[in-house]
Design goal:
The structure is a homodimer. Chain A is 40% helix and 24% strand. Chain A has 2 domains: 270 residues, Zn peptidases (Aminopeptidase, 3-Layer(aba) Sandwich); 155 residues, Glucose Oxidase, domain 1. Chain A is of the alpha/beta class.
Chain lengths: 461, 461
């Protein structure tokens, strides 16, 4: 009996080893396909250079929907369809202006309205500036200090974080909630130090979220160099000599009709079970939305292209989803989950790629406890090691796939994790252009994601 | 007895754990110092922007020696000194010219002489072109085909390599040995497809090595786009309609006197035992030598600066070595080993950083067998994991520390391994400039190297 047990376990071990060998051969083929025949880079070039910025509700967003659909139809995926969704429609309007006013001197600063922000009066706002490092400081200073002023949030990134998303998370409340907190105490406007570790001349946009219990006041980001300059000036000069002026003419239009674009390779065994790979098709209006998130949507399409080119017939249905409206509403992500529930789809896993098209480091598994992370490492780490994409950790999945958590409890939500060092240098700036994407880094990311999809399709998660 | 053994092993385990905890605290402090107070980026800015290209024997190379010495003296290291060394002195001369000649059409191509190459006649060389993919192909074609022609080596990078150094290694013989092999069969000149995976308009220089048994013929690199264009043209047209023209006026001057620059923090216990960290101070003449290897020399200085700033008093002597002449002779590396032997220095380890200032991935240990690599991983992997620099593998140390192998058998030779994807896009091109270096990536690399030096100093290797 003991002997039988032993030989069974030997058999199982042999089976596992054989499986791992097959898997490692498949992964090598997936990477070869991506690196030798990859189309993700040229697709990204088209999206960036022929379409360009594509904020929700814009004509370019519509163009990108139509092109994305055509692209996937051209690849001959089993299904390609649109999911209609109403999205917020915000427009920046004329280029913003901002000055540090130092007595008679006007020092122009690189500035841009925060996404979803309201306009200044046509003549702009001129006011005394109060510099703060946190929302709490505004609460503490209260109306007597804040009223009538422009609040200047100037807490920099904490550079000690190894992954820059930690620093972004730590500074982000200034942009998201800073304007409404300042408005509660009578501020007339808000300027925010750009959310980046870089010391440069680019203002970073990004959404602010007005709360219902405060007036909506104009809010803008200024470059980190300008923030340092303003802060230095405020140490030397006081009101009325020291003031700030800014002017912006952004506005909200009525919600617009738009779409998620979905491509699918239908599963041979479980057509109603889904593994989703997605990024967002919309992008900020200041540049081309290359790393944020042209790389993510083009990688998602590339995953299906690789499957098709290699003749992989997945057991479950694999979908590439080009989500609409991640930047200022996440309406596409919400719609995808809503329809998934309405259509009684079963969802196994969803992988989001929205942290840039940089060299892959691994994946983060949302809500996985230590034991389950360990299990992921036992199953997958060795396979991803040759591709240096073997960092498998607990962590967030992503904004667009997040709503599946509510509609499909138990779905595995997974974030693709590329190297994070350069992302916030260009994120939401005029620098987020095709030229700042490296072809091989982008291809390696697509291959890593395709590999994980392959493994999950084969062995579950 | 058993109990005693158990408690001893428990005690040892506790000791190891305590040690690991102390180490992890120290590494965190080293990274904080590099990320919060780092000076490596501003030092690199100076080297690139105030000094610039610094090929061995040039006036700029001498400037960089003087500045490097002054920089380290300013930091107050225990010793700062020069090591005199004679180096080859090659000059590019006037900007090269190259044309694809297609009948009456002259199509200009981006071209640059290979380092150490000879000039063409003043009027340039015009000849029929024979395209080959390998040195073996030239040998096979022989004199009847090769004689009087320009040989065009056009084997591209193999993109399947995950680390690009593999692709560089695989294509590099065309540049290094291609000219002399072609000359043996009577070729009048050689052009080489630039050693890069990038598809762009930049020619990549780099040393060619003339052998003694063949005439020295002019040799140059052309951009990958130009190589593709020439190859396409050669498929359509034959001699005499299809020709190539190039002209270069580079020359060898007499060997020049130059220096390695050495900074040292002297060991408290073993002043004559050394751990070396180094990169090379010389750089190609086409740009600023930012990633190759300004980042490496500035990281080496930063390691010592971090030690000093943190008040770490190493047991062994720690040296930062700015090697001269890695690009076209490695005379500095040879001199360092020669003097180390002559001065009866004991060398524990040497770490070279010469693969660019990109985000750190780990280290390669030269000649370490599987058991010793495993030991490195057991000791260090967990410590480097939080910094995503935990890839510890068998592999090369580096060209400048290599000569220590002969003089100091047993010394551990270690290569710093940053992410490799972008390196050969800019390596040896006009694009190797400060702007292409990311501050945080550079700082993280310096911290990773300082951490390894700290651990080796404390626990040996």
């Amino acid at each position: 009996m003991k002997k039988t047990l032993l030989s069974i376990s030997t058999f199982l071990l042999a089976l596992t080893t054989a499986n791992a060998q097959t898997d490692s051969v498949m992964l090598r083929k997936i990477f070869d396909e991506a690196l030798v025949n990859g189309q993700v880079y040229e697709n990204l070039r088209y999206l960036c250079k022929k379409i360009g910025p594509r904020l929700s509700g814009s004509a370019n967003a519509q163009k990108s929907v139509e092109w994305g659909k055509k692209l996937m139809e051209g690849y001959g995926f089993d299904k390609v369809f649109l999911q209609e969704v109403m999205v917020p429609h915000w427009e920046r309007g004329a280029k913003e202006q901002g000055y540090i006013i130092d007595g008679n001197k006007k020092i122009p600063v690189p500035i841009c309205a925060l996404g979803m922000a309201v306009a200044t009066p046509a003549a702009g706002i001129t006011a005394s500036v109060i510099e703060v490092k946190s929302l709490a400081e505004v609460e503490q200073l209260g109306e007597s200090v804040i009223k009538g002023k422009i609040v200047f949030y100037n807490r920099p990134f904490d550079n000690r974080f190894i992954e820059t998303s930690g620093a972004y998370g730590g500074a982000g409340d200034q942009r998201r909630s800073g304007p409404s907190v300042a408005a509660k105490y009578g501020a007339v406007g808000v300027i925010v130090r750009s959310l980046t570790a870089a010391n440069d001349d680019y203002p970073h946009t990004g959404t602010t979220q007005y709360s219902d219990d405060a007036p909506k006041i104009p809010a803008a980001a200024i470059s980190t160099k300008a923030a340092d300059k303003l802060s230095a000036m405020l140490k030397l000069r006081k009101f009325p000599q020291a003031k700030f002026f800014f002017k912006q003419s952004c506005r909200m239009l009525p919600d617009a009709k738009s779409y998620n674009v979905v491509g699918e390779i239908t599963g041979t065994e479980n057509p109603n079970k889904f593994i989703t790979v997605g990024g967002h098709l919309d992008s900020w209006d200041l540049a081309e939305g290359a790393h944020d998130d042209g790389t993510g949507v083009m990688q998602s399409v590339e995953v299906l292209r690789i499957f098709k080119a290699m003749g992989i017939k997945p057991k479950n249905s694999i979908r590439a989803v080009l989500f609409m409206n991640e930047e200022n509403g996440t309406k596409g992500g919400l719609k995808y989950a809503e329809l998934a529930a309405a259509n009684k789809e079963q969802h196994i896993a969803a992988i989001e790629t929205d942290e840039g098209g940089f060299t892959p480091r691994g994946f983060s598994f949302e809500g996985f406890n230590a034991a389950r992370v360990k299990e992921m490492n036992t199953r997958f780490k060795k396979l991803f090691e040759p591709y240096e994409a073997d960092r498998l950790v607990n962590g967030g999945g992503g904004a667009d796939i997040g709503p599946l958590k509510q509609t499909h409890p138990g779905v595995a939500l997974i974030g693709f994790r590329p190297d994070s060092q350069r992302y916030f240098d260009i994120h939401h700036t005029p620098n987020d252009v095709f030229e700042n994407v490296n072809k091989r880094e982008l291809e390696l990311g697509a291959a890593a994601i395709a590999s994980l999809v392959y493994l999950i399709d084969k062995g579950g998660i």
